[in-house]
Design brief:
InterPro entries: TPR-like_helical_dom_sf, TPR_rpt, Ub_conjugating_enzyme, UBC, UBQ-conjugating_enzyme/RWD. The chain has 13 helices and 4 strands. It is α+β, with helices and mostly antiparallel strands. Helix 11 packs antiparallel against helix 12. The radius of gyration is 26 Å and the shape is elongated.
Length: about 325
């Protein structure tokens, strides 16, 4: 395959990685050469490399994916010799074991797994756990002192902040936000939610609100229950609580790393209209429209009505 063919494949793979990034891993490439990639790995906190951010390079051959890349780390880690090629089954040390079906994502996952192993190979070094922990603590400052790193990862500070927030979330935060309360180990909250749903279907909205409130006492970050309670408040035209619950559900989803809910945005926008807060309603409708929901035309009409200039004074 020519460099042009390899470049086409690698650009597709970069899009795939950005769309579904492997846990603990980031990747980019040199602007002037698609064959020269850089990666960043931040190993799990329960390893000797926890808290560290390790920069490395992957150099792809012109006939990729039919030949393997060269792989090296740049950041000192106590695991690999900096700027020295690593001998592993996915690298150009072992073309006989290379599989063209492997993607960049597969390679980088393999690199992280190899880093966390104890295997000694060409490019590896032996080091104490205490020294590796020291280097992990020093890695952020070391990376930021390198002009090339800063050019490759200009948003490193934001990237690191997002990763720290992600790791600080409870393991079941996503399950709770989505309303999978049994799976999250909260059977009492799950039962209260189910009761609330039954009351809602029976149009007993006050009782539904009471049951949802009990569920939220056990699972305060449950965006799904907050959305349901907002819907019950809407049936009672309690617009202040509709807006409050819809806004709280959006915050809960964001805190758990869940997608933005178009339904929550639209319910909040409708409440804001009723509360005579047109500017905030316009913002909520615009945010909902950006999600490209199936009812986009109706949202555009609602926006147009809000954006109409007031009639001239008589």
């Amino acid at each position: 395959m020519s460099k042009k063919g390899a470049g086409y494949r690698l650009r597709k793979e970069l899009l795939a990685i950005n769309k579904d990034r492997p846990e603990f891993i980031w990747a980019t490439h040199k602007e002037t050469n698609i064959l020269l990639w850089s990666f960043l790995v931040a190993p799990p906190d329960d390893t000797v490399y926890g808290g560290g951010y390790y920069w490395g390079r992957v150099t792809f051959p012109q006939d990729y994916p039919f030949a393997p890349p060269g792989i090296q780390f740049v950041t000192p880690s106590g695991r690999f010799r900096p700027e020295t090629k690593i001998c592993m089954s996915m690298s150009d040390y072992h073309p006989e074991s290379w599989n063209p079906a492997w993607s960049v994502s597969t390679i980088l996952k393999g690199v992280l797994s190899f880093m966390l192993s104890d295997e000694i190979t060409t490019g590896a070094v032996e080091c104490s756990d205490s020294e590796r922990r020291r280097l992990a603590s020093a890695s952020v400052a070391w990376n930021c002192s390198q002009p090339e790193f800063n050019a490759l990862f200009p948003d490193f500070a934001e990237l690191r902040e997002e990763e720290l927030l992600r790791r600080a979330r409870p393991k079941n935060a996503g399950l709770i936000a989505r309303g999978a309360l049994d799976e999250a180990g909260l059977p009492g909250a799950a039962a209260a939610k189910a009761t609330g749903d039954a009351f809602f279907r029976a149009k007993a909205y006050d009782k539904a609100i009471g049951a949802y409130t009990l569920a939220l006492e056990a699972a305060p970050g449950c965006a799904a229950v907050l959305r349901n309670r907002a819907a019950a408040h809407e049936k009672l035209s309690d617009w202040i609580n509709v807006e409050a619950d819809a806004a709280a559900s959006l915050k809960a989803d964001a805190a758990a790393g869940e997608p933005v809910s178009a339904k929550a945005l639209l319910r909040r926008a409708a409440a804001l209209v009723q509360l005579s807060r047109p500017e905030d309603a316009i913002t909520a409708y615009t945010d909902a429209l950006a999600l490209k929901p199936p009812n986009a035309d109706a949202i555009k009409k609602a926006l147009a009505a809000l954006e109409k200039p007031p009639p001239p004074p008589s």
